[in-house]
Amino acid sequence: MKPALSLVNILTNLLNGAPRNSIELDEFDDETDKRIGTTVRFEPAVKRFIELQATHLGISNQEFVSMTLKAVMNATLQPQSNQLELMTDRFIEIFDAHGIAMADIPRLVPVIQKSDLLSKKTLLDKLSDDVIATVAELFFVDPLWLKGTSDRPHNLSGKRWYKRVDSIAISLAKYSRQCRGVRVLLVSKNGTNYQQLKEAKDKEDAIPAHVMGVVIQLDRSVNGINFTTYDVWEAERWNYAPCRHYLKCIALFCEKAGIFCDGATVATEQLSAFFIGNVLAVSALNYGRGVWHADQFLWGDDRNTELDELDYVRNFYKEKKLDKYILAIQQPQRVKDWEAFYRGDIQIDTD
């Protein structure tokens, strides 16, 4: 389920295109200027919203409206301040989204102390480029999103597996070495089942595209803090045979390497945004056993609804010569130079 936006975030989105003018805030003195009385008529739904929010905050309806409009004024006339507040909000948000208590943040980012989290101003001074880079790497988010200068949480540039299946094999070897647990999720829309996928295979472009993408789920442990995060890769059409063959090739690689591979879903209305990085993966991904099982496409009996492709997929896998990456996953000590390995220079001791 998509997390609810806070009032601050909603206002921030509304203000992106707000007009600027030459008003200076210090032209007005709150202590000496007289309050201006006015009457504003609200639609019933808006009026009810104001009443609920005011009650929640323990203030009058008038005070809530005044406070909200003042926040709009400040954010409009002082956009730099608004961006910095968004930066601190997103820093806290990314930990919260991953189920990490605020008290545990210093264990993941030692430069930050618990007392720094009591004040946005103090926290802001600690959010250096190095801290932002560390957090971005931990949770696979775009540093620009953390800084409040981009609305796209994930930068998926270069996250391609189609015709580059070796790239995902290298990543799986890397993560297997670094993380407590690694699994691959083939992600599609809610309600995906074998019958829908077979129809997409058989009818190809005669029906709307059934989009399928790859996400690597990582179970991490840093300084005693355990959390799960997601590395989102591209999505392609199951309808298109070459894309489908690469997806099945990835599933076969996982089976041979001993990496769990299964199906997962994203809300249908979020799927497109998810695979261009516009949705925070940890919040949007619906993962649960029993959705559908990717390894069923590798079974050699009638339970495999696409059994007619199995021999082709096995030969396709052999052509890609991926077994060397499996050796790196299962016997990492054989890799001579891991930094070179990550760059694609595969040097493995086979003796």
What does this structure look like?
This protein has helices at 7-15, 44-57, 61-77, 79-97, 105-108, 120-126, 129-139, 143-146, 165-178, 194-203, 241-257, 271-274, 281-284, 310-320, 323-330, 338-342; strands spanning 181-189, 211-222, 225-237, 260-266, 285-286. By secondary structure, it is an alpha+beta fold. Helix 3 crosses helix 4 (79-97), helix 9 packs parallel to helix 15 and helix 11 packs across helix 14 (310-320).
Rounded average pLDDT: 86
Fraction of residues in helix: 40-55%
The H-and-E topology, N to C, reads as: HHHHHHHHHEHEEHEHHEHHH
Strand content: 5-15%
pLDDT below 50 for ≥5 consecutive residues: which ranges? 1-5, 15-23, 27-33
Number of domains: 3
Backbone CA Rg: 25 Å
Major sheet characteristics: 5 strands, mixed
Write the layout of secondary structure elements.
Elements: H1 7-15, H2 44-57, H3 61-77, H4 79-97, H5 105-108, H6 120-126, H7 129-139, H8 143-146, H9 165-178, E1 181-189, H10 194-203, E2 211-222, E3 225-237, H11 241-257, E4 260-266, H12 271-274, H13 281-284, E5 285-286, H14 310-320, H15 323-330, H16 338-342
Parallel strand pairs: 1-4
Antiparallel strand pairs: 1-2, 2-3, 4-5
Helix pairs in contact: 2-3, 3-4, 9-15, 11-14
Short description:
This protein is α+β, with helices and mostly antiparallel strands and 351 residues long.
